[in-house]
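Dear colleagues,

For the upcoming journal club I promised to circulate an example of a predicted protein-ligand complex. I picked one with MTE because it came up in last month's discussion. The inputs are reproduced below in full, followed by the predicted structure.
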Amino acid sequence: MLIKSSDDGFIHPFSSEITARATYEGRRDMLRLMACGAAGAVLATWAARDALAQTATYQRPGKLAALAAGKSGVAGAMTMEKLTDYKDASTYNNFYEFGTDKADPAKNAHTLKTTPWTVEVEGLVRKPAKYTIEDLLKLSAQEERIYRLRCVEGWSMVIPWVGYSLSELIKRVEPLGNAKFVEFVTLADPKTMPFLGSRVLEWPYVEGLRLDEAMNPLTLLTFGMYGEVLPNQSGAPVRLVVPWKYGFKSAKSLVKIRFTEKEPPTAWNKAAAQEYGFYSNVNPNVDHPRWSQATERRIGEDGLFAKKRKTLLFNGYEAQVGQLYAGMDLKKNF
Ligand SMILES: Nc1nc2c(c(=O)[nH]1)N[C@H]1C(S)=C(S)[C@@H](COP(=O)(O)O)O[C@H]1N2
Ligand SMILES: [Mo]
């Protein structure tokens, strides 16, 4: 099912994952206002709304928020999947700059300094520019989108992210005709990132997308989650979320976005090319050389009798992104 959005002209996929806009209409400017220091006032308004809404709730620190989970008419088409608890989403992380153990980023990322912050947009664009985080927050209205994130290691989460389609930013900078790829460079600061001395990966952590993938409305420039600004361990103050690809494509703490003609080298591909391809689309039929990708463990469901879930092609977003790969051999282009 598709819903036509009134204000940005996009047809937004509404099959399951994107929060019904009406429900969140009042919340969209939250993070923008946070940037101006008005967060308290806005959150208070939300709390009142939430009390009225009486819909399902999800956990986030210190407060409850309405989740459009099918209890109200407007939200009937929303996903019925349970959201991952905020606690799990913010304490079980991959962010190797802060350590390789899943618990390390939450313990260590307090040293990350997220203000001031700028993101440089450069390369093959008509309007290269250096954006402050405040500029980026103002560039387009944020929306909350519930997306699955499937890590290449075999676990997944369901997270309400806050941001807007990366395409909004890309349209502003006007890519040139020869721009075919987008490279994402993340912060590499040895003073605040304790594991930059380790040689598991080359720093800075870099990722990349084909331009049409970057333009797909699902690709989210992300500033928050669970109605809050991103915690440092989740990639504050701004990260990518590319929900149909393995989690490592969703680069955290972005500082540079570069438009290129050639496929950019990426951190995991440089570390182990035969294991981590450029595309890395979630695909149950293409195994990692060392393990199967057919099933996954949903974080929060890991009791003794918890069943593994079947992994879905393109992480369940085939209707929205399948056409990007028409005619491509997904086993070769893994
Ligand atoms: N800069 C940077 N971004 C990164 C990583 C990293 O180590 N450094 N890890 C990636 C991996 S492997 C995954 S699975 C996701 C995890 O995101 P989460 O911790 O918010 O679940 O972030 C990705 N982005
Ligand atoms: Mo990952």
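Two points we might discuss: Residues 39-53 form the longest helix (15 residues). Residues 328 and 334 are 10 Å apart (CA to CA).

See you all on Thursday,
B. R.
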